[in-house]
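Appendix B, example 12.
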Amino acid sequence: MRIGIHMNYSTADEVAEQCQTAGVREIFLSTASVRRFEELGPATADQFRSVQDELQARDVQVSGVILPKPSQDNLLGKAEAERAALCETIRAAGQSGIDTALFYPLDDLLYFTEFHEGRPLQIMPGEDGWEAILDFFREVVAIADEVNLRLASHLWAVEVVKGIWDAVPSPNNGVTYCQGMCLIGEDPHTPAATWGMDKIFFAHARNQKRTGPCLMDHDEVPLETGDVDMARCVRALVEANYDGVIIPEHLGPQSMAAAVTYLRTLVN
């Protein structure tokens, strides 16, 4: 298991400096930050390669990318240009040699400030609009399959995710293991049993203390405190021979460097 950080691209020197400060050599790079400001359209494979080369020369590896979050209209097939741009980004990332993408496909359907027991999404399986959402997954996963890019979807509702996998079977249709899943009532401590290690393409490390029933009713806290037993979570990954990247996030008052140091004690 390797430890990295999320990163927007500014300059290669600035990225390298931030990695050195955090104590890492691997990043997941925002695709939106790769496109030059004066250019229109999604980043190209050549742009991804150029950024990778610049960072590799500074001993920084782009281990994955962070895809744009699709809008609800995109999910429902009502935003053709946005859908096309996302597919182009997926294709370009894969063609550049990147093999993993952090993806937040259903964030626009989450209830952030309302609580609906047993209903984490505004559109649930079997309801009006769900088939359109499955069509969205079919399209983006097909592009990922073309270029062998693993889509690590940041989704927490276990049965919903497994239903998507059943409807859109692919070795590239997987998940980001994130302990934030406890915020919707899922158990974050058994990643192998919950997801299957062949489906965990990427991992987050985060902790929080619940303050109420809604998704946003929590305080972000350092990794070693909070409602999640982080040591147990990381130990479960180590015991299951997870060999991907884990990235700390939502750390509250904890610095990234301190979070990386703490994770390293668990990984080693």
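Residues 66-267 form a domain with the TIM Barrel fold (CATH 3.20.20.150). DSSP finds nine helices and eleven strands in the chain.
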